[in-house]
From TrEMBL:
Keywords: Cell membrane, Chaperone, Membrane, Protein transport, Transmembrane, Transmembrane helix, Transport. It comes from the Bacteria. The chain crosses the membrane at residues 20-40, 379-400, 449-469, 495-513. Residues 50-77 have a biased composition (Low complexity). Interacts with the Sec translocase complex via SecD. Specifically interacts with transmembrane segments of nascent integral membrane proteins during membrane integration. The gene is yidC. This is Membrane protein insertase YidC. Pfam families: 60KD_IMP, YidC_periplas. It is a multi-pass membrane protein.
Length: 592
C-alpha cells in the first residue's frame, strides 16, 4: 500500500508520532464501521433467497405450462451493491387470456398489453375492435404499463423483460403475474381475470428496499379513434366522494397530479372507456396524461402532407403507499354494462356516459327507444321512426292549441293595429309607449289570447331535439347500426339524403304553418334561412338525429295540412287573405 502523507506534517519526530496515532485512530474507526455494516447486512440477508427461489419456481411453472416459455436468467449470487437477486427473462414472450368478451395479449416486455380485442364490437373495417390505439401506444405507452415521474425509470420499466408466471393461451377466470429485478430495482405485477370486462391489478415497485411511486397507466387513448371529432370526444372522468365530474380533452393537462379520494377515475371517448376503481379510494392519486399525435385529415386516403393535430388522452392511478391495488374496467360505454360495475362505495359507472344537462330527457328517451328495439322491431332506424311517430302524436294537442292561439291573435289583430297607430307618433323612449303595451296586454287578456301560446310546441320540441342529439351521439348501441342505405346511424349520412330531407321538411313547415302578426318579408326570410341553417348543421351530424328531425317535420307538415282544412284553419286563411289585400291597397295608395 502506498504511504499516505499528511499535508500538515512539517517534519520532526514529535509531529510524526502524533500523525501516526491519528492515522491509527481513523483506521480503527474504519474497521469498526466496516464490520458493523457487515453485521447489519447479515441480519437483512434472508430476503434474497426467497426472491431467487420465487423467480426460479415461476420460471419452472412457466416452462411446465408452455414449452415456448423463455428461461429466466437469475444469478446465483446478489449483484454488487444489491440486496436482491437479478430476475429477468432471456427473451420476449406473449401470454393471451380471453373470455367471451375480450382477448387480451400481454407481452413480458414491460409486462404490458399490446392487444385488447373486444369480441362484440367491430372497427371501421368490420373486424373485431382492438381497444388499443396501436400508433399512439407505440409512441406514448401501452395499457397496464407503469408511469413514474422519472422518465428514465419509466422507460426502463417499459422495456425490461419480466418473468411471466405463464405463457401461451389462458382462459378466464385466471391469474397472471410478472416479476423483474436488477440493480436493486424489484417489480411485481399481478392480474386476475373473470367473466366480465373488469380485471384486478396489483403492482409493487421498490428500489433498494424503498417503495417507488409507480402508477398503473392507460396512456394512449382508444383504438376506435381515427378522425378529429372522435379524438375531440375524449375526456377525463372521475368520481370523488360520490360526486362525478368530466374534463374535456382541451382542458386536460398532461402530467397533472390530482389527489384523491377517487371512487373511480380514468379516460373515455364517445363509446369506450378505461376506468380504474382503486381498492382504497382514500389514498388514490391520479395523473392525467395528454399527448399530441399527427393524424391524416382523411383516414381512408391518408396523405403525408395533409395532417392535423389530435389530443390523445390517458390516465395513471397510484397511491401514497407506493403500491397499486385496483380494478380496471376497459370496455363499452353501455348503460347496462356500466350499471353492473360498482366502486368501493357502491356507486356504478353509468355517469361515464355523458348526457350533460339533457340527461333527464336523453336517458328516458333511450330506454323507450331500446324497448321498441327489443320488443317491437329489431332495427334501431325503424325504432327511431316509431318513437318519432309516437312523440308527434303525443304533441298533437299542443299543435291544436297553437292553432287556436293563432286564430285568436288574428281576430284581435285589427284592434291591436289601431292601438299601435294611436301611439305611432311617440318615440320608442317616450314613457307613453308603456301605455300602448298596457292596452295591448289588456286587450289580449280580455279576449283570452296568450301571446306565448304559439311557442308551446316549440318549447316542447326543442328539448326533445337536444335530448335526441345527446342520446344518439352517446349511446354505443347506435354505433355501426344500419338502416336502409345508412351504414352507421351514429355517423353522418354518406349520401346526404337525410339533410336534404330536413331542409325540404323545414321549408314546408314554415310554408304551411300560419304566422299571425309576422311581417310577410320576415316570414319569407325565415322560410328559407332556417331550413338552410339546420340543413347545414345536419350535414355533419349523426344520421340517426337527421332521421328523427326529418321524420318529425314531415309528420308535422301532414298534421298542419289536415288542420288547415278544418273550420278553424279556413277562418285563419280568410283573415290572413283580408289582411294581405288591405296591405296591398295601402301600398298602391301610397304609390299614387
Amino acid at each position: 500500500m502506498p504511504e499516505i502523507q499528511n499535508p500538515n506534517q512539517q517534519g520532526g519526530t514529535g509531529g510524526g508520532g502524533q500523525d501516526m496515532r491519528t492515522t491509527l485512530a481513523f483506521f480503527g474507526l474504519f474497521l469498526l464501521v466496516f464490520f458493523g455494516l457487515q453485521y447489519y447486512r447479515s441480519k437483512k440477508a434472508p430476503e434474497p433467497a426467497p426472491a431467487q427461489t420465487q423467480s426460479q419456481s415461476q420460471s419452472q411453472s412457466a416452462q411446465q405450462q408452455s414449452a415456448a416459455a423463455p428461461p429466466a436468467a437469475a444469478s446465483p449470487a446478489p449483484d454488487a451493491g444489491s440486496a436482491v437477486a437479478a430476475v429477468a427473462a432471456a427473451g420476449e414472450s406473449t401470454t393471451v387470456i380471453e373470455n367471451e368478451l375480450y382477448k387480451i395479449t400481454f407481452t413480458n416486455r414491460g409486462a404490458q398489453v399490446k392487444s385488447w380485442i373486444l369480441k362484440k364490437y367491430t372497427d371501421e373495417d368490420g373486424k373485431p375492435l382492438d381497444l388499443i390505439h396501436q400508433t399512439a401506444a407505440a409512441k406514448f405507452g401501452y395499457p397496464l404499463s407503469l408511469f413514474t415521474y422519472d422518465a428514465g425509470l419509466r422507460s426502463r420499466l417499459a422495456s425490461a423483460l419480466y418473468v411471466a408466471s405463464a405463457t401461451g393461451n389462458l382462459s378466464a377466470p385466471n391469474t397472471l403475474s410478472f416479476d423483474y429485478s436488477a440493480g436493486g430495482l424489484l417489480v411485481h405485477k399481478s392480474f386476475s381475470f373473470d367473466s366480465s370486462y373488469v380485471i384486478h391489478a396489483s403492482v409493487k415497485v421498490t428500489q433498494n428496499g424503498a417503495p417507488v411511486s409507480a402508477m398503473l397507466a392507460w396512456p394512449s387513448g382508444f383504438g376506435d379513434q381515427s378522425t378529429l371529432p372522435q379524438y375531440a370526444g375524449g375526456m377525463l372522468d372521475y368520481s370523488q366522494s360520490g360526486k362525478d365530474d368530466q374534463i374535456a380533452f382541451k382542458k386536460v393537462v398532461g402530467g397533472d397530479t390530482l389527489r384523491g379520494p377517487f371512487d373511480w377515475a380514468g379516460v373515455s371517448d364517445l363509446y369506450f372507456t378505461a376506468i380504474f376503481l382503486p381498492d382504497s379510494p382514500s389514498d388514490a392519486t391520479l395523473v392525467s396524461l395528454s399527448n399530441t399525435l399527427q393524424i391524416p385529415k382523411n383516414p381512408k386516403k391518408p396523405e403525408p402532407n395533409q395532417t392535423e393535430s389530435a389530443s390523445v388522452l390517458g390516465a395513471a392511478i397510484g397511491s401514497g403507499a407506493g403500491t397499486v391495488e385496483t380494478r380496471l374496467f376497459a370496455g363499452p360505454k353501455s348503460l347496462d354494462v356500466l350499471g353492473s360495475v360498482h366502486a368501493a362505495d357502491g356507486t356504478n359507472l353509468q355517469k361515464v356516459v355523458s348526457f350533460g344537462w339533457w340527461g333527464i330527457i336523453s336517458k328516458p328517451l333511450f330506454y323507450l327507444l331500446r324497448f321498441f328495439h327489443d320488443h317491437v322491431i329489431a332495427n334501431w332506424g325503424w325504432a327511431i321512426l316509431l318513437l318519432t311517430v309516437i312523440l308527434n302524436i303525443a304533441m298533437l294537442p299542443t299543435r291544436i292549441k297553437m292553432m287556436q292561439s293563432s286564430l285568436k291573435m288574428q281576430r284581435i289583430q285589427p284592434e291591436m293595429d289601431q292601438i299601435k297607430a294611436k301611439y305611432a307618433k311617440f318615440k320608442a323612449t317616450d314613457p307613453r309607449k308603456q301605455e300602448m303595451q298596457q292596452e295591448i296586454f289588456a286587450l289580449q287578456k280580455r279576449e283570452g289570447v296568450n301571446m306565448f301560446g304559439g311557442c308551446v310546441p316549440m318549447l316542447i320540441q326543442w328539448p326533445l331535439l337536444f335530448g335526441f342529439y345527446r342520446m344518439l351521439g352517446n349511446v354505443i348501441e347506435l354505433r355501426h347500426a344500419h338502416w336502409l342505405w345508412l351504414p352507421d346511424l351514429a355517423s353522418p349520412d354518406p349520401w346526404h339524403i337525410l339533410p336534404i330531407f330536413v331542409i325540404v321538411s323545414m321549408f314546408l313547415t314554415q310554408y304551411f304553418t300560419p304566422s299571425p302578426g309576422v311581417d310577410p318579408a320576415q316570414q319569407k326570410m325565415m322560410a328559407f334561412t332556417m331550413p338552410a341553417v339546420f340543413g347545414f348543421m345536419m350535414w355533419n351530424f349523426g344520421s340517426g338525429l337527421s332521421l328523427y328531425w326529418a321524420c318529425s317535420n314531415f309528420i308535422g307538415v301532414a298534421q298542419q295540412m289536415i288542420m288547415n282544412r278544418t273550420g278553424m284553419g279556413r277562418e285563419i286563411r280568410e283573415i290572413q287573405l283580408k289582411r294581405a289585400q288591405k296591405q296591398r291597397g295601402k301600398v298602391i295608395n301610397a304609390r299614387r
